[in-house]
Structure formats: structure tokens, C-alpha cells
Backbone:
């Protein structure tokens, strides 16, 4: 009996030491890939990607080991204007025919406090990969009312369109795009 | 000389003018700089004249089936006749495909398209991005092929006028 308890404790200890894996809640759609960019310097244009998937890991005892991988279907770009979306899918911008996906693969996480931190990783858009840093805000975590365990974040970063070889110029005010990734993961 | 009817001639030259404008404007508008004053105006003109072409084309097809567009038999070799008839048939196919894809792309959002604040075009249905991109591809390459046929058509007319020195072109003027 003592041995059994010993192994049980050991087993639980091993389990808790492992990073928990979370799948993005795509089914219930509690995950968003949004962007905004200035129009002529007069206003903000908002858009989003409708189709994407990914997962992340997080260990409360070792938050620096947190990681995330996401793949976005670039053809799902949606700025609430069919003609503009068609233009965004063309080789003037996202070149969807040649590069149907965009990816983010994290390489390191630097925790600050309260679960927040900075996520560094490789962002690939239009076939071009650059290292980016995302400012990660921890929103909340806990048991949901339906028997699952959830954890959510919102991450933001700025990217220059020219860094991703997006050749079409929209003017000096519209060179920088602000990206917000808001995700909720369900523990596997 | 036995000329084509006035209506046939008007429709022919109106179609020619519209197709020429549609090709040039379509080709040029996608290259325009975002800060060009024509960036919004030229596509709107392209759409509006495209709708006019659609109307003209509808009349043309109705007249074709109603037997109003009598073909005159020019003094040509059988091979030339087959070629010219084939090209004219392809005009019907390509222009119809181009105006249809154009219309459907304009209204792909599922909302009516309003041109110059007075032309209201109802949306027939909503399309996904992938379908819109396919229609865009057909629209672009279809236009290049159509212009190839137009070139052959023009070369034929010029050849009849200057080399064969017959009435083929004069009958349409």
C-alpha cells in the first residue's frame, strides 16, 4: 500500500511537471487573428483571418518553456469587402495561390509577471520568414462549465509589410500592420 | 453594294468600342497606383461600361436567335469562312463569359453594387474567396484570348479591304 501511494505521488508529480498542451478552441471559435492598418493616415482598417489552427503548451511551474504553433489559411482574409479581399489574396499582397498559409512557430518565451510575457518566434508570411516578438497578455485560465480546462491569451505585434516582400505600396501611413492574436486553448 | 442593316452596324461598332475600352481600362486599372485619382474612378467606369456591354450583348444574342443578323456571303474561300465564323462564335462565348464573371465578382459580397450612385445592380448570390479568385482568373485570361481573336478579326477585315479589295469591310461601315 505504501509503495502504491509512493508511485501514485510520483506519477502525479511527473504529470504536473509536464507542460500541459492546449488546442486552440477552433470548434467554438474562441480564437481570433485580427489585424489593423492605417488607411491614408486617416483611419484604421480592421481585418481578420477566418481559418487557422494551432496549439500551445504551458507549464505553471516552468512558464519560460511555454510554446505555440499556429497556421493561418491566408485565403481566408476578410476585411468585409469582397473586392478588397480579392486584391489582398492576389500577388500584390498575400499571394495566396503560391503561399496558402502563414505560420508562427515560437522559439522562446520570456515571462514577466502575472502570466504575461514576450513570445519570440518565426513568423512566415508570403513565403518570407522573420523573427518577431509578441507582447503576450495572459487573460485567464480555469475550469469551464462543461468539464474542460481553458487558458487564454492576447498577443500583439507590429510588422512592416516590406519585411515580408509585400510589394504593393499603400502609402507612407500604411507600411506597418498591427497584428493581434487572441486565443483560448482547451487542455488536451 | 449590299450593306448590313443600320442596326447591325451600330451594334457592331458600339460593341467594338466597348470591348476596346473594357480591355484597355481593365488592363490599366489593376496597375494604377493607390494614390492615383483614377484608382476608384477607372474601375467604376469599367464596371458601368461593362454593364452597357452586357445590355448590347443581350440585344445581339436576341437578334442572333431572332434571325435579325443576316450573314451576307462574302466572296471568300471556305477556309476563310469557317475561320471567320469560328472567331465570331468565340466572340459570343468569351464576351458572355467575361460580362458574367465581371458581374458576379462585382456582387460577390452578396450585396447590391451601386455605380455612380444611380445604377443599382442586384447580387444574384454570394461567393467564397476561392470562387471569386477562379472567376478573376477566367476574367483576366479570357480577356487576353478575346483580344487575340479581335486582332485576327481586324486582320481579316484589313486583308479583305486592302489586299483582296472586296466589300467585306465597307459593308459594315
Residues:
Amino acid at each position: 500500500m505504501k509503495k502504491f501511494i509512493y508511485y501514485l505521488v510520483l506519477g502525479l508529480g511527473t504529470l504536473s511537471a509536464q507542460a500541459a498542451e492546449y488546442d486552440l478552441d477552433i470548434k467554438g471559435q474562441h480564437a481570433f487573428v485580427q489585424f489593423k492598418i492605417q488607411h491614408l493616415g486617416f483611419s484604421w482598417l480592421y481585418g481578420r483571418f477566418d481559418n487557422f489552427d494551432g496549439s500551445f503548451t504551458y507549464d505553471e511551474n516552468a512558464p519560460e518553456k511555454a510554446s505555440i504553433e499556429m497556421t493561418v489559411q491566408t485565403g481566408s482574409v476578410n476585411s468585409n469587402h469582397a473586392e478588397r479581399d480579392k486584391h489582398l489574396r492576389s500577388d500584390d499582397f498575400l499571394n495566396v495561390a503560391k503561399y496558402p498559409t502563414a505560420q508562427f512557430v515560437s522559439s522562446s518565451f520570456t515571462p514577466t509577471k502575472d502570466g504575461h510575457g514576450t513570445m519570440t518566434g518565426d513568423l512566415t508570411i508570403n513565403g518570407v520568414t522573420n523573427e518577431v516578438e509578441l507582447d503576450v497578455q495572459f487573460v485567464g485560465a480555469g475550469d469551464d462549465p462543461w468539464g474542460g480546462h481553458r487558458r487564454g491569451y492576447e498577443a500583439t505585434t507590429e510588422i512592416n509589410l516590406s519585411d515580408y516582400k509585400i510589394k504593393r505600396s499603400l502609402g507612407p501611413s500604411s507600411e506597418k500592420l498591427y497584428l493581434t492574436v487572441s486565443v483560448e486553448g482547451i487542455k488536451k | 453594294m449590299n450593306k448590313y442593316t443600320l442596326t447591325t452596324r451600330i451594334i457592331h461598332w458600339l460593341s467594338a468600342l466597348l470591348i476596346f475600352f473594357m480591355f484597355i481600362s481593365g488592363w490599366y486599372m489593376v496597375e494604377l497606383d493607390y494614390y492615383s485619382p483614377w484608382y476608384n474612378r477607372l474601375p467604376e467606369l469599367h464596371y458601368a461600361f461593362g454593364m452597357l456591354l452586357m445590355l448590347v450583348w443581350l440585344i445581339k444574342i436576341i437578334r442572333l436567335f431572332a434571325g435579325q443578323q443576316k450573314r451576307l456571303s462574302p466572296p471568300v474561300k471556305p477556309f476563310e469562312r469557317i475561320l471567320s465564323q469560328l472567331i465570331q462564335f468565340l466572340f459570343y462565348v468569351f464576351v458572355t463569359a467575361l460580362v458574367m464573371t465581371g458581374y458576379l465578382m462585382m456582387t460577390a459580397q452578396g450585396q447590391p453594387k451601386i455605380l455612380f450612385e444611380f445604377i443599382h445592380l442586384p447580387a444574384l448570390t454570394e461567393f467564397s474567396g476561392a470562387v471569386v479568385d477562379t472567376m478573376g482568373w477566367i476574367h483576366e485570361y479570357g480577356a487576353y484570348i478575346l483580344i487575340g481573336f479581335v486582332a485576327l478579326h481586324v486582320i481579316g477585315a484589313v486583308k479583305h479591304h486592302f489586299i483582296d479589295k472586296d466589300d467585306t469591310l465597307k459593308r459594315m461601315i
Summary: Chain B is about 65% helix and 5% strand. Residues 6-172 of chain B form a domain with the Fumarate Reductase Cytochrome B subunit fold (CATH 1.20.950.20). Chain B has a mean pLDDT of 89.
